[in-house]
Each structure stands twice: as C-alpha cells, then as structure tokens.
Amino acid sequence: MAELTPEKTTITDFAVREHRSLWTDAWQRLISSNTARMGMFIVALFVFSAVFAHYFWEYEPKKDLDYSLKLKAPTLVVNEEVPSVHIFGTDKLGRDIFRRVVHGGWNSLRVGIVAVSIALFFGGLIGLVAGFYENIHMTSSEKLTLFGFTGLVMGVMPAWIANQPFQALLFAGLGIVAAYFVDFYKGKIQRLLIFGVAGALIGGLPALLVSGATALVCTIWGLITGILLSRPLEGKFFSNVMMRLMDIILSFPGYLLAIAIVAFLGPGLEKGMIAIGVVSIPVYARLTRSAVLSVIKKEYILAAQSVGEGHGRIIFRHLTPNILSPIIVQTTMGLANAILSAAALGFLGLGAIPPEPEWGSMLGDSYRYLTSGAWWAVLFPGLAIMFSVLGFNLLGDGLRDALDPKLRT
Amino acid sequence: MTRYIIRRIFSVIPTLIGVTFVIFMFQRLIPGDPAVAMLGEHATDESVERLREQFGLNRPLFLDRDALADGDINKFFDSQYVRYMKRLAVLDMGESIHRRIPVRETLALRFPATMELAFLAMFIAILVGIPVGIISASKRNSAIDGITMIGSLIGVSMPIFWLGLMEIMLFAVILQWLPAGGRLSTGIDVKSITNIYIIDSLLTGNIAGLRDALEHIALPAIALATIPMSIIARMTRSSMLDVLQEDYVRTAKAKGLSKGLVLFRHALKNAALPVVTIIGLQMGTLLAGAVLTETIFSWPGIGRWVYDGILGRDYPIVQGGTLVIAVVFVAVNFFVDIMYALLDPRIRYD
Questions:
Q1: Which residues of A touch B156 (CB under 8 A)?
Q2: Which residues lie below 8 Å from residue B203, measured CB to CB, with a gap of 6+?
Q3: What is the average per-residue pLDDT within A223-241?
Q4: Quick check: B198 contacting A, CB < 8 Å?
Q5: Residues B39 and B171 in one domain
Q6: Do residues B228 and B327 share a domain?
C-alpha cells in the first residue's frame, strides 16, 4: 500500500460528490484491474474473431480437403513444396489449421453460451424458490399450489397402476383440501387419521374395479400419500426434495455424466450443449440458494414483506438484484468450464460431427500423429482452448474482486 | 459422533439409489431398440428376441401393472429396474458386447490401475499445492505470489488431455526421457499382488520394476495432478489469508513467536478445513479426468476402458465404468464429511 502523505490526500465533500451507482463503482474497479483487463481483452478477441469468421470468412468444411498438403508444418512464406501459406500448418486431410481454429471458436463459444444459459435458467430458478421459501412462510394460495401439486405427483402412481387417470386429479383435490385443513385444524393425530383413511380410500376404491391386488397396492400408496399430505408441508419440504435431486446429479464427478449421456445419445454438438447444461444445473441451484440464504434475513426483505409486497415481487425486485454478484462471477467461470467440457466431449469423439471444425475434436483427430512429429496439429487447437478458458477465468476473477470487494484476497 | 456417522450413512443410501437409477436410465437414451443397438443392425430377429429375453428387455421398465391386474404381485415387481438392481447386488454388471467378458472381471483388473494413478496424482497435488499456497499467502502481493496465482489460473484453464499431449511431445518425443504410454515396458514383469505396480514391486523388492513403473506413471500423474494442484494452491492461499487476519494470529506474533511457528502452528491448523473439503471435491475432477488422461497415455485403467466402450458403442462397459467412478466419488465425499466433523467438532448434522 502506498504511503499516505499530506499532499496526496484530498478531502472529498460527500454532500457534493457525484452519485455513482453500485454498478458504475464495480465497473470502475473492474477496468482498473490488470487481470480483468487482460481477461476482457482475450474474451473480446475470441468473440470478435469467431463472430467475424462465421459471418464474413466463408468456410465449407465438407469441401475442405487436399491430400497433397497432408500434415505440413507451419509456413510463413510460400515455397515449392507448399504453394500456400499456413501459419498453423495443416492437418491429416491437408486442411489449414489456422482457419479451422478460428472457425472452431464459433462452435466452442456457442456450446458455452447455450450450456450456461440452460444451467443458469433452471438452476437459478430452483435455487431462488428453494432458498426463499425455506425461510419465508408460504401464503395460503402458495400452500394450495404446493399441496395440490404434491398430491398430483403422488397420485400419478396409483392412476398409472390402475390405468385410471382421474385418480391423479382426486389426489390433487385431496392435497387442496389438506392445505385448507393444515391452517385451521391443529389436531395432528386427527389430521393423520382423516387424511390417511381418505388417501387409502381414494387410492383403493377406484382400483377395485381392476383387481384385488391392484386395489391393495393402490391403497398402500394412497395411505402413504394421505399421511404425507396430513403433515404441515412448507417450503422446506420443496427445498429438501429439490436439493436431494441436485445431490444425485452432483454425485457424478465433473463432466463424466455429460460424457456418459452423450455416449448413449450419440455424438452431436447440440446434444453436448444440452448435456453439459443439464449436468451443471446443480452448481447454479446450490449457489443461488446459498446466496439467497445469506440475504433473506436482511431488513429490506422484512421491510418489503411488512409493506405487503407479494412474494413474486420480493423475489424479483429485492432478492435477485442483491444476489447477482456471485451469480455473475459463477456464470463467467461457468463459460470457461463449459468450453473445457465441450473440448473433452469433442476429444472423445462425442462433440461436433466431422468435418465441422471444433477445438476438442480437432485434437481428437490429430493426436495420433503427435509421435510422428506433427506437433502443430495438436499445439494450436489446444492453445485456443487454453487462452479462451483463461480469458473467461481472468475475467471471472476480476469480476469477483470488482463486485464484492469484501471477498478480495 | 457415532450418531453423526450413522445419520450420514443413511443419507448416502438415497443418493446411491439415485445414481443407479440415472445409470439404468442411460439405456433408454439409446436411439432405437437397445437390443438391436447391442447386436448390430444385421442381427436376425431371432437373436434380437433371445437377447431381449436374456436381459429382460421385454419386461416393463419399473412395474408391471398388467400382471397386477391379473392378481400376480410377484410379477408386478419383476421389472427391468428391479432385475438390474438384483444383478447389481451380486455385482453382476452384464458383459461386454464385443468381447463377451463379464464387466465385473475387467473392472477388478482395471480398478487398481486407476486408483494407483488417481492417488499418486492427488499425492503430488497436495505435496505441491499446499506449500505453494502457504508461501503465496505469507508473501502476499510479492512477485512469487503473482507468478503462482497466474500459474494456477493457467493450470485450471488447460484441458488435461492437451497438457498430457504436450508432455508426451516434450518428454517422450523430443527429449525421450520418459515413455509415452502404458504401465510397464515389455520385458519387465512385476509379480501381481495388489495389481498396484508401485506397491507390488516394493513388496517383492523388484527395483527394476519399481523404476519402470514410476517412469511410466510420472507423465500421466503429473497431467492429472495439474488441476487439483492449482485449485488446492488457490484455496490454501485464500484460506490462509483469512486466518492470518484473525486476532489470535496477531496475538501470537505480538508475543514474539517466530514466523514459521505462527504460520504452521496457529494459521495452518485453522486454515485446513476448507482445504480438506476442496481436496475431497477434487477427487471427482481426478476421476473424471482419468477418462481423458488414461486415453492419451494408454493407461489400462477404467477411464481408457470407458473410452474404448464409447468408441465401440459397448454400452455395458460405459454403464459399469460410470457406476464404479460415481460410487467411488460418493464414498470419497462421505469420508471427507466424516473427516470434516472430526477436524471441527462444531460441525454436526442438523
């Protein structure tokens, strides 16, 4: 830290200081940081070159083929052997690697953006709702929805077994009744008995039309559903169910689940995007939930509640803007991870379908030629992956420092 | 403590069931008829039918409501999923489509190879990552700090398979110091006891074997270690920086303790908790990374095998390999949670 000398200090008159919003402040901090500037520069370079190449530099992968130029080392000037300039060399089909690296950027960035959008949308929504209702009591109409929906989901089972769809609606109805009961009828044992019996009857009676065995199974299931609905379900219940689901997805390490899913679906860039997006939903759900939990007890939420604002309004007007910082940082880093995962998929032959250029699959195509000395076919696509990922990571780091100076280390 | 462990075990069970469920559902993702996909398009109707019978593909997925309507409760539960779980209970994961070898046998053979690689990589990552993190934190904002932080950022930005390829290029092709792949050179034999060659060669006193095994494992282990190493270094640094601002550290400094003593006795102990967590989580990165690293280095572990399974559309292999890796990951996380509770008595299951 620089020494403070009397000449250097200036006195700020806070009454006349120009007003700066949180975001302007963060922007100032962002552009004054070297790492963030570096990150922004790299990201801008890749985005610009990919977009420019896609729209203005024509490339037809299906026609790009010239065996006479197979695996030529990088050249900067034209010679007899290689009649054209290839600054990154050529690959096993004689294709210019520089051209394919630039065009491959379009695919990699697309995968990143689509995958992160999917993960952010679903994960963010789950995290917001789970974190919010874990701490805020539900209004009666929200309880109605929760109970009705729980009844409906549970009711699908007997409805399917007995092949009578209306049973699911009966259970949804039972849920709605239960939601009313929970609020004004406090007798726990009585509620348990009433809804247990009602559930068993709704499950068992219609199933009797099919067979005795079906009725037995449906009665047991109805009983369980009834007992569940007799309990005072709250947001905590929804949150637990959702977070358990997220835990299951998270118990597959890294991008292994995405690899396995695409291995079964068959290769394709679109399938890869969706797979990477879906398996990263839990990351965003957990992050959003914990961010919500960290601000939900703050006074401004209480104030918004006490002036009678609706829950939807509180979530989107007061909660969301205040938890944006960690989510913006994670989104930037998530783009980096998605590009890495997409490269891994491509390398395993599960990404873009050849001859479409994509960094990972370019590496997968040519790594076998490494031992025979064709280093350029492996070096440059890999450098492209590394620098684009590094760019997003640097930017993410800078954003974290800029948006949350307290976390700065 | 016992109570905590028991509750934690019970919370692992639904996760494991969920994992088997997801892996079971993979089969449904195969476009078209799985039986045809397994046998190839030129299979006769007869053999397809036989395979469907053999794998129970003609049974319903989860529950048989028609059997229930006929009053047959046993048949009601006799579904593909229940059969799959029954087979899993006796560790039967089917057999490879192409080679007709039971998945379990190959797994038993290849599992030690992956574990050897993963644990050595983790060992390297911890051995380098933690000291680097401590040095960075103690010399905050110095040149060393800047270099290690940028270095660790580059470390997490590299695709590990590319790093592995660059290693091969440098050390195996150009310098020719180390072999480019495999577990042992031809002609060198290590008597197999645990199937972890480093341990086996130590047990049998086979120095040539040990040397050869270490030479082969060096490159893949370093490639695999890079990401966890970078993340551990960053985590150690930021956790140490947090702790170094605490009052008790200032007190320790004020009463004249040496810098090293403050750093290791007072700070490191208290900074260890987040580092332990991150080490546990990185085990996942290692296991997923094994698929890529083993592919590059022809390492005969589960990862390479899964890759071959993907290429050959050998679905039981992909299922079996994924299952084992996921189960190991769940187990590691379980132990990390227990460790966490042991290290910090305040942490208890709510």
A1: 393
A2: B193, B194
A3: 81
A4: no
A5: no
A6: yes
Residue A66: partners with Cβ closer than 8 Å, 6 or more residues away? A90, A93, A94, A95
Find which of B142, B163, B168, B310 to mutate to test the A interface (most A CBs within 10 Å of its CB).
Answer: B310
What is the tens place of the pLDDT at every residue in A182-228?
777 777 777 777 777 777 777 777 777 777 777 777 788 888 888 78
Contacts of B56 (CB under 8 A, 6+ apart): B80, B83
pTM for the model: 0.83
Q: Which residue has the tokens 């009744």?
A: A177
Residues of chain B with Cβ-Cβ distance to A210 below 8 Å are 68-69
Secondary structure of residue B93 in the 3-state scheme: coil
CB spacing of A211 vs B63 below 8 angstroms: no
Q: Do B68 and A211 touch (CB under 8 A)?
A: yes
Question: What ipTM is given for this predicted complex?
Answer: 0.82
CB burial readout A338-359, b (16+ within 10 A) else e: bbbbbbbbbbbbbbbebbbbbb
pLDDT of residue B286: 85
The domain in which residue B265 lies consists of 109-343
Residue B95: inside a domain: no
Residue matched to tokens 């292999």? B317
In a domain, B163, yes or no: yes
Domain annotation covers residue B309: yes
Residues B14 and B54 in one domain: yes
Cα–Cα distance for residue pair A272/B285, rounded to 1 Å: 19
Strand-pair partners of B95: B102
State the best of B11, B161, B162, B242 to mutate against chain A, taking most chain A CBs within 10 Å.
Answer: B162
Q: Choose the most confident range, by mean pLDDT, from A132-141, B155-164, B241-250.
A: B155-164
Chain A nearest C-alpha distance from B92 (Å): 20
Cα–Cα distances in angstroms (integers) from residue A229 to residues A28, A216, A241, A355, B302, in the given order: 53, 20, 15, 56, 46
Q: Do residues B141 and B283 both lie within one domain?
A: yes
Are B247 and B298 in the same domain? yes
Q: Is B216 contained in some domain?
A: yes
Residue ranges of domains in chain A, CATH in brackets = 20-69+88-131+271-409 (1.10.3720)
Domain count of chain B? 2
**Residue labelled with tokens 């210019």:** A96
